[in-house]
Amino acid sequence: MANSYFQFKQFRIEQGACAMKVCTDACVLGAVTAVAGAARILDIGTGTGLLALMAAQRNPTASIEAVELDDSAAAQAAANFTASPWAARLRLHARPLAQLAAARPQPFDHIICNPPFFRHALRSPDARRTTARHADDDTLSFGELACFAADFLTPTGRLTVLLPPPEMQEFEREAAAAGLFPATRLVLRHRATSKPLRHIVAFSRQPVLATEQELPLHEPDSEAYTAWFQERLGPFYLAL
Predict the structure, then answer these.
(1) In this predicted structure, which of 77-81, 108-112, 119-123, 137-141 has the lowest mean pLDDT?
(2) Domain containing 219 — which CATH number?
(3) Domain limits at 183?
(4) Average pLDDT of every residue of the chain
(5) pLDDT (0 to 100) of residue 78
(6) How many structural domains compose the chain?
(7) What percent of the chain has pLDDT over 70?
(8) Sign, Cα dihedral of 122, 127, 129, 133
């Protein structure tokens, strides 16, 4: 059974009321997203509030907003924000993304999202976990996410998304249709010789040749984390 909380060096994530718990790939997303210099950041589908809190730790001046449609997760994220050292810079919207769009928020310099992505896998008997993990017509769609980012990013803003490789291909088609294009791509693998697990892609309005970097999490012959992982997660993980 997952812990009811996950303790980081500078904040704690209470997660007992959230369908999706803290996981390694989400932590990597929070650690590598280029939030430096951003004045306004949005975390879409914040869940526990993890990505918003990591952004707050990494960017000491940004105003950070988060949106979450699940009532229980939203309440837990709000509590995690309040208990953090950065409560004054964090704001939660407990509503669907479409309602936030209708309110016409000020543009964001960076939008972060770890969206639902299991489109064809078996559904969980836990309906809230299914909503958090599966992209369906009645939850956040790739097209909705891409169009929101196109509407509410600043001219030089970026959208950073984490998805498995097949789903990322689908998302890139939706993003291109909305006028957003890959600028950087990070390929996460368990080890250098393992198949890709996730892609972390930053999108911008300018069609450019995207830079690509391979990011193995573990050393070739052990469960030890790579130097790359330790450097980036060291500011967050107690064990590093």
Answers:
(1) 119-123
(2) 3.40.50.150
(3) 24-233
(4) 91
(5) 97
(6) 1
(7) 89
(8) positive
Closest CA to 68 of 170, 13, 139, 137: 139
What CA–CA distance (Å, rounded) separates 58 from 64? 12
DSSP structural state of residue 89:
G
Size of the chain, expressed as the number of residues it contains: 240
Question: Residue holding tokens 């999202």?
Answer: 113
Q: Is residue 6 part of a domain?
A: no
The token pair that represents 56 in the structure block: 């707050």
Instruction: Give me the pLDDT at residue 133, please.
Output: 44
Q: How far is CA 158 from CA 15, 64, 122, 144, in A?
A: 28, 15, 32, 16
Beta strands 196-204 and 181-189, pairing class: antiparallel
Q: Tell me if 168 is assigned to some domain.
A: yes
Q: At what angle do helices 50-58 and 71-83 cross, to 10 degrees?
A: 30
* Burial class of residue 239 (count of CB atoms within 10 Å of its CB; 0-12, 13-18, 19+): exposed
Do 88 and 77 meet the contact criterion of CB atoms below 8 Å apart? no
In 3-state terms, what secondary structure has residue 34?
A: coil
Q: What is the pLDDT of residue 2?
A: 56
Q: Is 119 a domain residue?
A: yes
Token output for 110: 């960076």
Query: Could you tell me if residue 172 is inside a domain?
Result: yes
Identity of the amino acid at 115: P
Question: What are the strands of the beta sheet with 211-216, ordered from one edge?
Answer: 90-93, 63-67, 40-44, 108-113, 153-163, 196-204, 181-189, 211-216
